[in-house]
Amino acid sequence: MEEAAAGMEEGEQSQEAEVSPALIAVHPLGKSVVVAVGSELRAYDLDGDKAISLSDNSSGPSHSEDIKAIGFGAKGKLFASAGNDKLVKVWATDSWNCMRTVCSEKRVSAVAISPDGLFVSFADKFGVVYILSLDEKGAEASADKKAVPLLGHYCSIITSLEFSPDGQFIASADRDFKIRITVFPKRPLSGAHEIQSFCLGHTDFVLCLAFICSSDGCQAFLLSGGGDSTVRLWDFMSGSLLDTCEVGLKVVSIGGHFVPTSLGMSSTADHLWMVMGASNLPSHGSSLPLACVKVISPLQKIKLDEEHSNLTVLDDEEVPGGQKLLEKLQGRLNVAEDHEALEVAAEALKTAMRNLLVKRQYSVANRELRKKIRNDRKIKQQHQ
Amino acid sequence: MCIPSHEKYGTERYGEPRPKPRFLVGNLEVANPGQFLFSLRLLLAVSLVPAPSPAVRRHSFPRLRAAPSVDTAASSRRSWWPQKEQQRYIQRSKVGPLLKSDRQMASNGHKSHLPRKRFYRARAHSNPLSDSHFPIPISPSDVDYSQHFPAFFPVDRDGTDGNLSIRKIHFADIGCGFGGLLVNLSTMFPDTLMIGMELRDKVTEYVKERILALRAANPGLYENISVVRTNSMKYIPNYFEKGQLSKMFFLFPDPHFKEKNHRRRVISLHLLDEYAYALQVGGLIYTITDVEELGDWMKSCLENHPLFEAVSESELKADPVVKLLTSATEEGQKVARNGGQTYQAIYRRVVQEEE
């Protein structure tokens, strides 16, 4: 109701196709890398040094709209992708065959696979997290079974979904500044009702989550990044904020017009994979969605006290997999030279992200004005 | 207009042009009797309005004699009113004498003025799904309760807090409406801090004024209640820590009959997770409604939730709060007046059983 006044420009914008950022995911053991741009999944086998062709045995349709969430799970055995077409697809990574396709009622905004590989959970734009059992025994019977609601954020876009490494908790982040840590129950199909904590502290939408373990592996923490350009460290058991890092101050420049839209890293952490890209670019001439992959290496030599002097962005030839990989993942070579396209993409993504996630704030005076405008408009329409 | 009627209709067919019918009202000749009757009816209706029936008059507030100064903020707020109406209403005060029930509470006979509901009229429902534009605390520690409960949070003159243990809110009335329950609970539990949460701006404003007026009329009383404007379906964790509350009230919530709108109901399986988070183990959740369908819904939600169990009949009888559910709130009184039936569900927060 209150959104009506700002409506003119927004209405025009919403008629254009939504711009989605390209995503990248790296196999935890560094076996493969996947880029999702638009409705297309592009996978490359790093071990065998060849492009992967995906196959689909799940008798479900393939992705037809922008993919919004991808991720490896269960120590790299499974891979999930989901998006605006309301489809969630689960792939077995040994054969790259699609095991399951599930229809969601709403557009899917986040997806995660439990560490034991038994469950896939996904969240929709209205804040409900669903859970789907991948149990082999019941696979035949439940092939067309719908996913079951697990928990709900009240009418808020869930931006990220993550299982804790021990599988005991599930963390969900939303655009209302909240991170909810829920106890993952033994029988999740009847819902997860016990909330361990809320991590509150972000002053804008929360965009991404990651669990990390201390070096001895006995204690886990939660990292989150948000639209307030901070990265925060949480003790997720109590929900207390341990540290905050203002990102704006510590950015390492990559140079050129490259602004990564998604990052990926294997657990060996020797390369940081970055992708920049967008689908449905308004003024982008070619029908091919734009994607540009870059790699930073070697990460292990970084010492905190040094000036990041060892950090280098690899040239296209030095990227593991070489030009063959880039051709597969980017669709074509030398995308990075196309400065104009990259700039357009960065701008379009920024706008799309803001429209989707940022809450609009109005002063009291402004609000009164908007109400008035709205009423006037109504009266005018009635007279016409 | 003087088109001869025979030219218009043709004399051949109708013969002589028919004479125009004449209607006389008194000495006046009326061209269109229908229009005349209509305007007469309007006149009658208008003259009837300012004379309400004795029953209506009994329930309305007596008018104040002295016209207080016009408060510009209030008049601008009512700028959508017709000019005449506005002037008529501004003549009167926003603050009226005590309600009957409140008058009994003002035991010392101190003269006091409570806000009058008619100036805080709001639409009966508010959209809980909309993006909120009111300020929301980032976390529970962000809320400054010294403004809500000044008597419980004394601040030294130096501006440093005394070494008092910080008191926490224990009761929450979700969708407190006009605050009837809060006012009643306040005297029943004078040492417990409680807060009402209401989504409608004007109604919150009314409750705020009402509490301030009650505090002014009864020094030392009503210091433990306050109200915030918020969407409790979205922002409960922003106000309360885990296990902070001992009682939560959901009295006469919006029924939302359509299945499409069931997600707007304030009790649902998913939302109960959040209420269970805010409630301490052993804490109680009170729900009541006069809509049977909603009563069933709330009961089944609570019944199916693993963190809640029903409170036994004998405990309910011993609980003085239960009696307030039907009698304290404005909605409850309305239902009782109309002889309606109520459906209540009172459940306790428990620890999930291990299997």
- How helical, in percent, are the residues of chain B? 25-40%
Number of beta strands of chain B: 11
State the end-to-end distance of chain A: 22 Å
In total, how many beta strands of chain A?
25
The averaged pLDDT of chain B comes out at 74
Q: What is the helix tally of chain B?
A: 16
Q: How many whole angstroms does the radius of gyration of chain A measure?
A: 22 Å
Helical content of chain A stands at 10-25%
Could you write a compact summary of the structure shown?
Chain A is mostly beta strands. Chain A contains 4 helices and 25 strands.
Report on the structure:
The complex is a heterodimer of chains A (384) and B (355). With 384 residues, chain A is mainly beta. Chain A has a single domain, classed as YVTN repeat-like/Quinoprotein amine dehydrogenase (Methylamine Dehydrogenase, Chain H, 7 Propeller). Chain A is built from four helices and 25 strands. Chain A has a five-stranded mixed beta sheet with strand order 5-9-8-7-6, with no helix packed on it. A four-stranded antiparallel beta sheet of chain A has the order 1-2-3-4, with helices on one face. A four-stranded antiparallel beta sheet of chain A has the order 10-11-12-13, with no helix packed on it. With 355 residues, chain B is of the alpha/beta class. Chain B has a domain at 147-349: Rossmann fold, CATH 3.40.50. In chain B, the strands form three sheets. A seven-stranded mixed beta sheet of chain B has the order 7-6-5-8-9-11-10, with helices on both faces. Chain B has a two-stranded antiparallel sheet with strand order 1-2. Chain B starts with a helix and ends in a 6-residue tail after the last strand. Chains A and B meet through strand 13, strand 16 and strand 17 of A and helix 11 and helix 12 of B.
